[in-house]
Structures are given as structure tokens and as C-alpha cells.
Amino acid sequence: MDDLYRDYILDHYKRPRNFGELEPHDLEAHDHNPLCGDELGVHIRVADGKIVELRFHGQGCAISQAAASIASEEYVGMPLDEVGGLDGEWLIELLGIPISATRRRCALLNLKVMRGATTGDASWPNGGG
Amino acid sequence: MATAAAPSILDVRADFPIFGRRIDGRPLVYLDSAATSQKPESVIAAIDDYYRRHNANIHRGVYTLAQEATEMFEGARERVAAFAGGQTETTIFTRNATEAINLVAYAWGREHVGPGDAVLITQMEHHSNIVPWQLLCEETGAELRYLDVSDEGKLSLEQLDAELARGDVKLVACAHISNVLGTINPVAEIVGRARSAGAVTLIDGSQAAPQMPIDVGALGPDFYAWTGHKALGPTGIGVLHGRRELLERMRPFLGGGDMIRTVDFQRSTWNDLPWKFEAGTSMVAEGVGLGAAVDYLTGLQMESVRAHERELVGYALERLREVAGVRVIGPRTAEERGGVISFELEGIHPHDVADLVNRENVCIRAGHHCAMPLMRRLGVPATARASFGPYNDRSDVDALIGALAQARQVFGV
Ligand SMILES: Cc1ncc(COP(=O)(O)O)c(C=O)c1O
């Protein structure tokens, strides 16, 4: 089996969870990784300060799309004010695959978009380069 | 894989030290020459020799070293000019193609383009041949217009005629060979038509100069730009061939040492061509290196380099057809293309394709290739791109095809 493209990564890439649009939504953001053309947007519904539902949409490499899908399952139910405190290491650990420097931004794009939507901070999470 | 049945036109890999490199015990399959070329021993040795034996600042020293360095640098200019069919005095050294194009946009464009004028470029340009014109048009109030690219990756001369007929086009800028599509554009026709319409032309020869015989004099553009590092030379040096009448009338681009004749407290006068456009200490070692690169290419004969790449591209196009799910972008035949092939592999993003083939040491590029408007036009977020140099042969293509098959296996497509 491939180190990077593990079965669960490819499964999330081919059948992404929480993907699509969400109308109406309370929060949204959209961003891209100009290096490789990965694009990702998010629609979020909030209740009682928590993320109750979210949908990613976009296109990109397997790492960026699978990472969004895997992380989406963590974001649902999370208090809004926790998102801004998440860092790149949290995400890389969650993915459980060796992410090289050249693929780091692919993996981190979903967190960047989430932080953009919840805190307005559109910078790369630490370690994003 | 053995390719004894069809020997390459060129067999020069041994001239390039980097191919002695092993990664994880296996050789390098370098298919990214459109981004930058590898360097022959002779270029590396020329730079080394310059620093070890001749290094001095050029042009004003009277001692032996300074004379040698000056002769080496100016001698390189002569050979670089001859290589491209240009004249020595109108061959300006810049940092790269990007700086050459910016030189024209600033020193010519700011004087001659104004409100109500148009700059005409194409949808297949590299960002280097887009952004300087955007800046120029933003500043001057001119309009930036584009020639379309067809689904097969070609320009239309009819559209060019229609654009020129509007009477407002001051400058036409266009790639000789597209770094994404591989398309060889009909630059002689483009230059001729633009000239008849009174428009100045700039041809971006970054991909053409390394691959095919260039005769700037016969082609006749007002400006022709290229970049050393793609033509087996070092980074940090590019070339602008310009038409003498225009260069003489243009204001300087950058001000400083070397580009002046006299400097008074308030005013200065300019040096002769080409030095008027070369402010500050020149990239001497890089110029010497580029001189060695054009010597090497001249030794191979550019007709042979072109034939070699055409043969390889033809073979690669044929073999890519064997891989299920591959869609090649750009012109159909090797005759219409330079040594560049962009493609998509169904079900696998180009970034993943490049990562997967890298496991076999196959170096290809994935992304927008500094041509985001073209990606838009093609309706793709990115492409994978394989490109060739004189050192490649069929075994490199075979390695790519094998690696693509493995990539499909990993992804289960
Ligand atoms: C067609 C074309 N134009 C311009 C450039 C810019 O070259 P440089 O970055 O050396 O200025 C490139 C290379 O990236 C290119 O392929």
C-alpha cells in the first residue's frame, strides 16, 4: 500500500464527506492554493456557538480534498471559538500520513478556510509556509 | 527500457553531470526542461574557470584580469547575438526573460502607449508576458486585449487582422512557443501583420531559443526576449534583442553605473548600445556561462536539437495514447509543437500525478505553469507537464509511461 495515498485517503477523496453547498448558511469562506490550483470553499451553520453543519466545496488534489473531508467530521460539533486555536500539527496528525513540505499547503487548505470563515484570519495556519 | 531500435538523434546525456546523480539508487528521469534546463559540463567549467582564473569587474579596469573578464563577457555577447541571428550592439543582457519584457514595458511602453491605445497579447502567455502589460495599461489608461486560443491550442490570424484593423494597437506581444501547450506560433506572420499595421512587436522566445534555430534578423520583431537558464545556461541572465532605431530613441530602463557616458550634478548622458540598458555591475560569470551554453548548442546544431525534440515528442504523444484516461492538451502533431506536453489523467489531479511519478524519479511539473489565464481558458485548474531537452531520450518517455500506469494503479482508476 502507498504511504501517502492510503486507502482511507483515497476513499475520502473519491467519496468526500460533508461536501456540497449549504443554503442558508451563517458563515462562509473561500480560498485557494495558487501553487497547484487547489480550491476550497465552506458553508457553515451555527447554533449555540457551535458548528452544527458544514459543507466544503471545491476541487483539487487528493490530499487537499481528502484532508477537508476527514477534518470536516471533526469540525461538526466543534465550538466556533475553538477553530481559531487549531494548528497545522493538529491537522497533519489527524490525517496520519507523511506530508512533505511541498504538499503541506494542500493538507492545510481546509483549516485555512475554516479559520477564515470563523475568525476572519485568512493567513496560513502555522507550518503552512 | 532499451531503445536500440530507434536511436536518438542526439546522444549527449553523458555531457550533463547531473545525470550521474542517483536518488534512492536509481537514475534521474528529468522531464522539466521547460521550467529550467540541466547544464552541460562545459557551461559549469566555463563559470568555474572564470571565477578561478579571470574574475575582475569589467569595462573600466586597465589591468590584465579586467581586460580578460571584459573580453570574456563581451565575447559571450557576440556569440549569444550570433546564436539568435541578432546584432551584438542590440543584444542586451538582462536578469532573465521577465526583466527583458519589463525593460520594454517600462522604457518603450511608458513613452509610446497612452489612453485610447491598446496592447494586444494572447491567452497563452506566461505571466511574464502578461503582468508587465497589465501594469503598463493600468498606469497609462491603455486597453489590454487578448487573442483567443482555440481548443487545439492555436491562435487565429483572422482575429489578429481584425484586432489590428481597429487601428489602436500599439504593441503585439506573443510567445514563440507556449510553455503549456507547446504550440509553435506563426510568429513570422504575426510580426509581418503587426508591422504593416504600425504596431511594435515583442516575441517571448523563452521556450523557442533552447529548442529551434532562431534568426531574429530574418524574423524581424522589434523585440525578442529569452532566458539563459532554459537554454542550458546559468540562472541570472536573460537576453533582449531589440531593433536599433527603437533602442536608440528609448529612455534607459534602470539608472546607475555602466549605463552612463557622463554624470553631472543634475543630468547625465547615456552610454552606447547595448550598455545604455545595463545598469550596474553585469552578471559576468553568468554571461560567460551563457556564452558556453550557446557554443554547446551551436555544436549540436539547432536543427538537430529541433529534430531530436520533434522525434521525442512524436514518440511521447504516441505512447501517451496507450495510457487509458490520458488527455493531451494542445496541438495534435509533433510538427506543430515544441518539446512540451501538457496532459490530464482522468481521476487523478495533476499534483498527485506529479507526486506519484516522482516515486520513480520522474520529474514532471504540475500546476498552472505561470499561465493562469490560459488554465481558465482551457477550463482546467492545472495540468501535468512533461518537457524535453537535448539530453532526453526514449527511455525517459518509457519511464514516464510506466510511472503513469503505476499511478493509475495506486488510485484504482
Ligand atoms: C514562455 C515563457 N516566458 C517567460 C518565462 C519566464 O522566464 P524567466 O522566469 O527566466 O524570466 C518562461 C519560463 O518560466 C516561459 O516559459
Overview of this structure, please?
The complex is a heterodimer of chains A (129) and B (413). Chain A has one domain (2-119): Sufe protein. Chain: A. Helices cover 39% and strands 21% of the residues of chain A. Chain A has helices at residues 7-14, 62-75, 80-83, 88-95, 104-119; strands at residues 27-33, 38-47, 50-59. A three-stranded antiparallel β-sheet of chain A has the order 1-2-3, with helices on one face. In chain A, α1 (7-14) packs across α2 and α2 (62-75) runs parallel beside α5. In chain A, 40% of the residues are buried. The model of chain A has no long low-confidence stretch (mean pLDDT 93). With 413 residues, chain B is α/β, with parallel strands linked by helices. Chain B has two domains: 13-30 and 302-411, Aspartate Aminotransferase, domain 1 (Alpha-Beta Complex); 45-299, Type I PLP-dependent aspartate aminotransferase-like (Major domain) (Aspartate Aminotransferase, domain 2). Chain B has helices at residues 41-54, 64-83, 97-112, 131-140, 157-165, 187-196, 216-219, 244-249, 284-300, 302-320, 350-358, 372-378, 394-411, and strands at 22-23, 26-27, 29-30, 91-94, 118-122, 143-147, 169-175, 200-204, 223-227, 238-242, 260-263, 268-270, 326-329, 340-345, 362-363, 365-367, 383-387. In chain B, the strands form five sheets. A seven-stranded mixed β-sheet of chain B has the order 4-10-9-8-7-5-6, sandwiched between helices. Chain B has a four-stranded antiparallel β-sheet with strand order 13-14-17-16, covered by helices on one side. A two-stranded antiparallel ribbon of chain B has the order 1-2. The complex binds pyridoxal-5'-phosphate. Residues 96-98, 126, 128-129, 175, 179, 204, 206-207, 227, 229, 238, 370 of chain B line the site of pyridoxal-5'-phosphate.
